Amino acid sequence: MIAISFYSVLFVSLVAMAIVVEFLPNKSDNTAGMQQGNQQAFKAFRNNYLFVYSMAMAGDWLQGPYIYALYEHYGYKVGDIGRLFIAGFGSSMVFGTLVGALADKYGRKKASLLYMVTYSMSCMTKHSGDYWTLMFGRLLGGVSTSLLFSAFESWLVAEHFSRGYAEALLGDVFSKAVFLGAGLMAILSGLVGNVLVEDMGLGPVAPFDAAIAVMTIGGCVIWLSWPENYGDSSGHSLANQFKAAAVAIMSDQKVALLGAMQSL
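and the corresponding structure tokens:
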């Protein structure tokens, strides 16, 4: 008990220190030269996005450690579980080529909301032990993953420049998004999931219900506070966009390698 208490205090202390270091104004703060009103408006915009992105990432991180365990809990063997995972990755591969262009055409806000909806639906399927219901959930999860890593950042970039903020400030937002979404949320989600499953004994479905809760919160903030924005699709059909992308991949080895690395 003493060891647990010590590590808990140490963890909270280190998290607090990391947050202070990340968010405390410093000499390289790009907002320092802005007028007070513009500075406050930018920080409100930045913090709104960071909160939503953190909720979206937490919804993803909460599920990860328990997907395989849940399938085992329902009595499925390695081969059956493997097919479920392949379906999810395959869904992400197929729809990942479409969601960016569709978000540009129909709206990044709608695409971000769609992520919250489809991933929540995927989590709901985890309450069923039926194999094909779980398969449907994996397909939804693949679509959701593609939306997570395209729609949110696209919305941010377009909205950032539409409000007239400097390009240098965008790097600050991305830096904090990585710290919160890929760092802090990953750790906290793991701890919350462990408490729900192990300490509270709620079973392997509990983290998925928690994911629905945080994504619902994020979705409400998007619905109430995000304006819609679109990509530049004037005169460009989806087919033409895919052709242009194929030309870019084949003509520049760096683009092809970057795409291959990203797919891993």
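(Above: one complete record from the training split.) The longest helix spans residues 167-199.
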